[in-house]
Structures are given as structure tokens and as C-alpha cells.
Write a structure and sequence with these properties.
The chain is α/β, with parallel strands linked by helices and 458 residues long. It is built from 17 helices and 14 strands. The structure holds iron/sulfur cluster (SF4).
């Protein structure tokens, strides 16, 4: 395939007779229009769903355009997180420093909104001029008596994954500022977990929380979908961390294990198979007969509730050729399994932040001939979709119109979706959405017009 020579090591076709050895975990190629966001955005997506915290972006107003409206996440209580606050740095602040402006913004916002904590995000220009976020936050913390945490997410160094790490450090600091940290050993709550790496974009987290409640497991803190400061500070009381999006929250899970002795388990609630496996793995951790029995009952009830409707949609999906381009590798792996269960063929898989192990695993799960790519760009993606004759692309908002322009189906598995795709009910929603998009009559009309040379906009 004709792509930029510097990108060739990042895009490979799986062969039956050799390993994949895909290049990854590198800075994006300049000029290649990566779909990745910046370091600050990486931190922002992870922290913003903490609902009763105030999120202040120290930087020019443009950075603050990445708001709740772009990446919605649902809350059961506070709505403070839905505001987007910025210090709106101007030329004068860049020349003389923005610390005074930040101090004033903190004072005004804390007095007005009374949040439970504040996160102050650093942006590119703040990293350059060297405003002392630590000092300003420390002073505000003393003055107002609540956690004010700097998020070291200025750009230029690292990728979106560095932002995940900065967010993980900020959450860890928030936990350490809580009471639970000081007496964590005595306060462990039996049969309890923290949920990491679900952002409750379309109520998925509530679906999983309900499953766990039904099998007898208490959720202490959710990080960060529908997250609450007090619950997050109680996180050390949990016996286990269950980790869904390992790309964004794996770093925090490892820190919590190493420094606070909370073990973690990777799970995924996307697709029926992964949902069942995850529930059984969590139940197995607690080694309790009652929990195991409850789990098996829940699996029986939920599977039988949706299976016939899934079968109905499956007939329109069988044999279709599927492309997947998502942020985190955990989702790509779950999607491969879901499409296998639907007898569709996955012909392209890419992620923004996968690592070497992820790609080897993806390679082992796919058929020879599948193209696997790291940090792809729209031109490359369009070429892959054409070459692989994909019928549908699963991706995020940035890929939606590319698919439509190419005249193929699309499923949003990212920020903008309105229907939950997690758990048993989510598997039905997912299957229905894939069916509806693939079987839409519009693709036939487009093809007919294209073949007749009467198509004006493609
Ligand atoms: S200026 Fe820097 S921090 Fe702000 S949005 Fe652009 S890359 Fe991100």
C-alpha cells in the first residue's frame, strides 16, 4: 500500500508465517495528521468526568474548547464538571507570567461554585513560560481548605498517553489527601471494588455497577465516570481495582498496587463474551460461594433476555468485512471477539495508544491478511478501508465522516454515542447499531449513483 515511508513500520499486514513486530508507543509523525489528541487533552478526558470537582484550564482560551459538550459523561449528582473554565491567557500573561491571573481565577471560582476539589491543568504555553502551578495550587489549598491539584499536562513532551499519566498522578494525589489513605489497612471493606477506566459516556458504568450490586459486590469509587471526590478518596478501602480502559488508567492501577497494595484485574464489559468472562473473574477473586452463585444466575438471566434479538440482527451482519479504529487496545480486542461472535470478518484493526503486547495479542486474534496499524491518519485509514473492502468502520467522532464519504457503514464506539454499548444490554444495542448501519439502503443508492457517474459529493 502507498503510504508515507516513515509510517511503514506502524502499518503492517498480518502474515501466517511471521510475527507482526509493529512499531508503536512513539511520538506521532509530523505532518501525518494523527488522530491523537495532545497531552493536555489526554489528562482532560480522564479527569473531567469527576463530577463535583472544578476543572480549570490554565492557558489560552482555545485549549478550553475541549469541553463536556465534546465528550459527555453522565453524572448522578453534581453538575460542576460540565462547566469549562479557563484563565484565558493573553500576550501580557505570556510575557509577565500568568500566576496572578490563576490565583484570581481560583478565588473567584472556588467561592462561587464551592467544589469538593479543584484540578488545574497546565497547557503548552504554561510549560514554556514556567508558571509555578505547584506553588499557586498549594497556596490556594491552604487558603480555601480543599484539595487544589496541579495537573502537569503541558504539551510538546510526550503523547496523549503522557496526559493519561499526568491524570493518574493527579488522582493519586487526591487519594493521598483523603483520610482513607492514613488508615487503609483497618478500613478494607469486604467484597468491594473500585472501577477504573470507564467514563460513563452513555450510562455504561451504571449498568456494570448494577450487575456488581446484584452479585453482592460494593463499588467504592468510580474512576472517573460519575466520579465523586469523597468516593475517590475512599478508594483505598476497596479490596480490588477492576480496570477496563488499561490505556488510560493502567498507570494509576499500577501505582495503586505498588504504593497502596490494592491489586487490580483487567476486565472488559464490551461484548457478551467479555462481560461473562469479566463477571466470572471478579467473582472468582472473592472466593465466595454466594457471589459465584449470584454471578451464574445473573449471566443466565441477562443472556437469555437478549440472545434471541441478537440472533435476529446477526443474519444481516454475517460475512461482512469490518474495520476497527479506536483509542485504546482493550476496546479493539473486545470488538474483535464481538464480531467473531457475529460471524463477521475483521479486516483492519488500529489503535491510537496500543503497546507492543497489545498488537501481538491483536495479531494473534485476527486472520492472516488483516491490516494492523498504530496511530493512523485519515489518508492511511481511507486507503486501508478501500484496500480491505470494508463494509463498516467502528471508530470515534473523527472517523465518522470519513466512513460516510467512502460510502460505508459506521458505528460510534466513542465520545458521542447516546446508547450504552456495555454489558448484555449493550451487546444488543451494539449489534442493532451495526445491523442498522450496514443494512441502510443509502449505501446501495450511493453505489448506484457512483457507478452511473451521477454522484456529486463523494
Ligand atoms: S495549545 Fe497545547 S495544550 Fe492547548 S490544545 Fe493545543 S496542543 Fe493542547
Amino acid at each position: 500500500m502507498d503510504i508515507l515511508s516513515e509510517r511503514k513500520a506502524f502499518v503492517k499486514r498480518k502474515r501466517a508465517d511471521s510475527g507482526l513486530a509493529l512499531d508503536c508507543e512513539k511520538a506521532s509523525l509530523p505532518g501525518a495528521v494523527s488522530q491523537r489528541a495532545c497531552v493536555f487533552c489526554g489528562a482532560r478526558v480522564v479527569l473531567n468526568p469527576i463530577t463535583d470537582a472544578l476543572h480549570l484550564i490554565h492557558g489560552p482560551i482555545g485549549c478550553a474548547s475541549y469541553t463536556w459538550d465534546i465528550r459527555g459523561s453522565l453524572s448522578s449528582e453534581s453538575e460542576i464538571y460540565r462547566h469549562s473554565f479557563s484563565t484565558d491567557m493573553r500576550e501580557k500573561d505570556v510575557i509577565f507570567g500568568g500566576e496572578k491571573k490563576l490565583e484570581k481565577a481560583l478565588e473567584e471560582l472556588i467561592n462561587k461554585f464551592q467544589p469538593r476539589a479543584v484540578f488545574v491543568f497546565s497547557t503548552c504555553i504554561v510549560g514554556i513560560i514556567g508558571d509555578d502551578l505547584e506553588a499557586v495550587c498549594k497556596a490556594a489549598e491552604r487558603k480555601f481548605g480543599l484539595p487544589v491539584i496541579p495537573v502537569q499536562s503541558s504539551g510538546f513532551e510526550g503523547t496523549k498517553s503522557s496526559g493519561y499519566r499526568a491524570a493518574g498522578d493527579a488522582i493519586f494525589r487526591l487519594i493521598c489527601k483523603g483520610q482513607a489513605f492514613r488508615s487503609e489497612k483497618e478500613e478494607k471493606i469486604p467484597f468491594s471494588v473500585n472501577m477504573l477506566g470507564d467514563f460513563n459516556l452513555a450510562a455504561e458504568l451504571w449498568i456494570v455497577k448494577d450487575y456488581l450490586k446484584r452479585i453482592g459486590i460494593k463499588v467504592i469509587a468510580t474512576m472517573t465516570g460519575d466520579g465523586k471526590v469523597k468516593d475517590i478518596q475512599d478508594a483505598p478501602c476497596a479490596r480490588l481495582n477492576i480496570l477496563q480502559c488499561a490505556g488510560s488508567m493502567g498507570y494509576l492501577a499500577r501505582r495503586l498496587k505498588e504504593e497502596l497494595d490494592i491489586p487490580f484485574m483487567k476486565i472488559s464489559f464490551f461484548g457478551e463474551l467479555d462481560t461473562i468472562n469479566s463477571l466470572r473473574a471478579i467473582a472468582g477473586f472473592f472466593e465466595d460461594r454466594r457471589i459465584r452463585e449470584n454471578t451464574e444466575r445473573l449471566i443466565r438471566e441477562e443472556s437469555s433476555r437478549y440472545s434471541s434479538r441478537i440472533e435476529k440482527y446477526k443474519k444481516g451482519i454475517e460475512g461482512k468485512r469490518i474495520a476497527i479504529y479506536v483509542g485504546g487496545a482493550f476496546k479493539a480486542k473486545s470488538l474483535i471477539k464481538s464480531f467473531r461472535a457475529l460471524d463477521a470478518e475483521v479486516v483492519f484493526v488500529g489503535t491510537q495508544t496500543g503497546n507492543r503486547d497489545d498488537y501481538e495479542e491483536i495479531s494473534a486474534m485476527t486472520n492472516p491478511g488483516t491490516i494492523i496499524a498504530d496511530d493512523t491518519n485519515p489518508v492511511e485509514l481511507a486507503k486501508c478501508l478501500g484496500e480491505q473492502k470494508a463494509d463498516l468502520l467502528v471508530g470515534g467522532v473523527k472517523e465518522r465522516y470519513l466512513a460516510y464519504k467512502l460510502g460505508i457503514g459506521f458505528c460510534d464506539h466513542n465520545h458521542e454515542r447516546k446508547y450504552p454499548l456495555a454489558g448484555f444490554v449493550g451487546d444488543l444495542e451494539f449489534t442493532r447499531e451495526i445491523y442498522t448501519s450496514i443494512q441502510s439502503p443509502v449505501w446501495k443508492i450511493l453505489k448506484r449513483e457512483k457507478d452511473a457517474g451521477t454522484l456529486r459529493y463523494c
